[in-house]
Amino acid sequence: MSYAVIKTGGKQYRVQQGDVLRVELLNAEEGATVNFDQVLLVGAGESITVGAPTVTGATVSATVRKHGRADKVRIIKFRRRKHHKKQQGHRQHFTEVEITGINA
Hints:
- Belongs to the bacterial ribosomal protein bL21 family.
- This protein is an all-beta fold.
- It has no helices and ten strands.
- The strands form three sheets. A four-stranded antiparallel β-sheet has the order 2-1-5-6, with no helix packed on it. Strands 3-10-7-4 form a four-stranded antiparallel β-sheet, with no helix packed on it.
- It has strands spanning 2-8, 11-16, 20-24, 33-36, 39-44, 47-50, 59-69, 73-79, 84-90, 93-103.
């Protein structure tokens, strides 16, 4: 089974065909096909191809399943005995994609 390491949204992901993962928000409609061209590594069985910094000609194709927002993260800043308390919440946007193919 072949796998690849791709880079998107400032993060790196190890993916195989059929994987479902959440990445940073992509500008694509639901059901659309997205190609990731920043492939850092491709492995198939015992053979591994490492890019410098990317593997030339390699792409990973994926289908956008849905867009959404993650669970809320609570940020609390509190200083004791200073009459200071600050609260904030944050929900990160994401795109859920399903890997459909690895072209090395």
